Each structure stands twice: as structure tokens, then as C-alpha cells.
Amino acid sequence: MADEQHNTEELMEFPAFEKRLKEGESFEGDAMEKWYDYWNQIYDKEQALMKYCGPAVVSTKMAQVCPDKSLPVLDCACGTGLIGMAMKSVGFTNITGVDFSQTSVDIASKKGCYKEVIRAECGEKSLPFEDNSFDSVVAISCLAHCHVQPVAIRDWVRVVKPGGVIVFTVVLFFLRDEHEYGKRFDAQIEDLVKSGQLRQESKDHISEWWKGTDAYLFVFRVQG
Question: Averaged in consecutive runs of 10 residues, what is the pLDDT profile of the chain (224 residues)?
């Protein structure tokens, strides 16, 4: 117990990303990548201490909505590969990871759960994949006001085959009525649904996504 407390205090000298976002700290471009270069050194241990349930919850959901686990999956903003490892543990065998941070790519590549991991940004720019390249996209804990913007969802629709699924999470804080990010998110989803490109299949409220933080887990079906 004493060792765990010491480790927690040591890690929390470098405040959790989600906490710093809430406090309005801005991360852009090179500053964001440098931040991740540092955070990645402690990320897996920090998430364990924060009792992060994301990989377990999302991999279970993916197994429910993607019965054929041999079909290609894109893990968008894969980070250090925690979700990839969790999906491999439930039988997924054809996962591609993508992240803008080279240290994330390097760490995730060594986890042994990805077919390949490439470096690319998710958001304003199109991902380096052809249309209809994947049967599903999974993106957890990356949609945030200074990280992956809601416009990225449009590109996820592009790279997923009709009938495929997009599974992603958003921390509740960013979807509050007063938060500008939530307004942009709602606008993107509303347009994609009204235009017949997406159909929402589920929206689950996940309590204690991180310690003290809740999130929504969304599943959308890409329409032909």
C-alpha cells in the first residue's frame, strides 16, 4: 500500500492530461507532441493507478458489435496501445493503429497487438487510408478540445465500409451545454445522421471512466 501511494504521488507530480484540459491549458502542434513524449513515459502506469477502465469496457463493446474479429479495425489515436492489447485479448487479430506522436507509435508497435502502427494526425487532415479500408474504427479518450476535433468523425465515416461501426468515447465534461467543444460535436453528429451517413446504435454512460470522471461510449453504424 505504501509503495502504491508513493508511486501515485510521484506520477501526480505531472498532472493528469484530463485535469489540465479542464483547467483550460492549451496544447497545440509541437507543444502537444512534446507533452505526449513526456506523458508516454508514465502513461500505462498512470492509467492503472487512475483505475482507467476504458480498454476493458471498449474491447468488450467491440466484441459485441464486431462478431468477426478477423476483419480490419482502425485504432485511431491509439496512444501506447492499451486498447489494442485489450482487443487482442478478446480475439481481434487485424488491428491497425494510428497516432500523431512518434513515441506513441514506437511504444504501441512493441505491444504485439497491431498489424502495423503509423504516424498521422486525426482531425482536419484526412487519414492516409483509402475509402472503405476498414470494417470498424475505435477511438477512445481522444476526442477533446485541444486534441482530436469532432470533424475527425467525418473521416472515420470515409474509411469505414458501409455497414461497419465506429466506436468512440467522450468524457462528459466536454459535452456539457456550456462547453464549445460539445456544441461542435453535436453539430457534426447531427449533420452526419441527418444526411444518412451514420445511425446511432447505442450511447452508454460509463461511470468512473477514470477515477472521478465519467464518459459516454457511443456506437454508430456507417450507412451505405
Answer: 41 47 53 68 70 90 97 96 96 96 93 97 90 97 84 97 97 78 92 98 92 91 94
Take residue 112 and report the three cell numbers written for it: 504485439
Q: What's the rounded Cα separation, in Å, for the pair 31 and 45?
A: 23
pTM summary value = 0.84
Looking up cell 456507417 gives 222
Q: Is 123 helix (H, G, I), strand (E, B) or coil?
A: coil
214, 206 in Cβ contact below 8 A? yes
Consecutive H or E run containing 204: strand 198-210
Residue 118 to residue 94: CA distance in whole angstroms: 14
Helix (H, G, I), strand (E, B) or coil at 193: helix
